[in-house]
Amino acid sequence: MHDVDNAHDFNRTPIYIALVLSILAVLGAIIGARVVFERAAHQPVALSAIMAPQADSPECADLIARLPERVEDYRRTPLADPAPAGAAAWSRTSQDRVTLRCGINPTEQYSRVSDTETVDGVRWLQVADPATDLSTWYTVDRIPAVAITAEGFNPTGAVSGEAAHLARAEQEPAALPLDAAPTPEQGRCGGLMGALPERLGEHALTEKEGTKAVWTAPGAEPIQIACGVDMPAAYEPGERLTQTNGVPWLSDGDTGLSYALGREAIVAAHLPSALGDAPVVGLSEAIAAALKPGGEAPSAG
Predict the structure, then answer these.
(1) Over 70: is that where the pLDDT of 46 sits?
(2) CA gap 116, 125 in Å, rounded
(3) Where are the domains of the chain?
(4) Radius of gyration of the chain from Cα atoms?
(5) Cβ of 115: how many Cβ atoms within 10 Å?
(6) Neighbours of 35 (CB within 10 A)
(7) Helix (H) or strand (E) holding 156
(8) Residue 277 in contact with residue 219, Cβ under 8 Å?
(9) How does residue 36 score in pLDDT terms, banded at 50, 70 and 90?
(10) pLDDT of 83-118, one tens digit each?
């Protein structure tokens, strides 16, 4: 009886050995793949040169030296030669990275209606890329100016403490596209201004003064309208127009503005192209309901 049991024990031994070896092989493959992955993820990052007139300043050099080794779970990664001045990068994979630039030109998207965030005493403006999940945050109260770009999360908390060492200098807000637009026919616009929608897509109505209004959304360009403007110089009889909810629109490629025509008052609008059709649909509904047909009535092409 004992001989039979010993035989069974002896026969299982190669199976146990093979099982252990297979587990070790799998573990070795996993560890090896992880090592290769880690090495690939933290290869030097190539960054292109950009317009950054103060990138080689002592202040930027000091900031780059102070930056942390980690931003969330991204690890500081060296830059490939030729490395641009005033730049830093952190990576998690070879394609997933956070980049920082110091000494850039101040962002032109900062305006009086911009929604900024203050982190460790530093004010940041988020500018989202409408085509991806990437966003760039710009300082608007420091000199030299700093920008940090990441995908899917806000990285400013990791670098604001160091950016706070830069000199404070409040950036002058840029004017909005229709701020200076004259509105000689504003007397006809009361009904429209009282009927403006509170939201246009993701944008919320944040400013309404006289016959001008602004809608804003975090990270996005604002929408602005001005009611009672003159007939745009770009319009000529027979011009091809786009009809939306009964309102013909003219797009002026030279100014980037759109005009609602064929009503008792002409409405000019700054509608960022990245926002799609939602804003013009909402505005057209309000214009059609509040402004009577009148003036020169162009036909839509």
Answers:
(1) yes
(2) 5
(3) 58-168, 186-290
(4) 29
(5) 13
(6) 10
(7) helix 156-163
(8) no
(9) very low
(10) 999 999 999 998 899 999 999 999 999 999 999 999
Backbone φ and ψ of 37, nearest 5°:
-60, -45
pLDDT at 13 over 80: no
> What would the pLDDT profile of 118-138 be if each residue is shown by its tens digit?
999 999 999 999 889 999 999
- DSSP string spanning 258-294? EEE-SBSSEEEEE--GGGTTHHHHHHHHHHHHHS-B-
**The token pair that represents 219 in the structure block:** 């990270």
Tokens representing 5 are 């049991």
pTM of the model: 0.81
Strand residue runs (E) in 42-173: 70-71, 74-77, 87-91, 97-104, 117-119, 122-128, 134-139, 142-143, 145-151, 167-168
Read off the pLDDT band of 32 (50, 70, 90).
very low
Residue found by looking up tokens 């013009």 in the block: 280
Three-class DSSP category at 224: strand
Contact 284, 260 (CB under 8 A): yes
| 30 CB-near residues (< 8 Å, 6+ apart) | none
Write the single-letter amino acid at 251. Answer: S
243 alpha carbon, distance to own chain's centre? 30
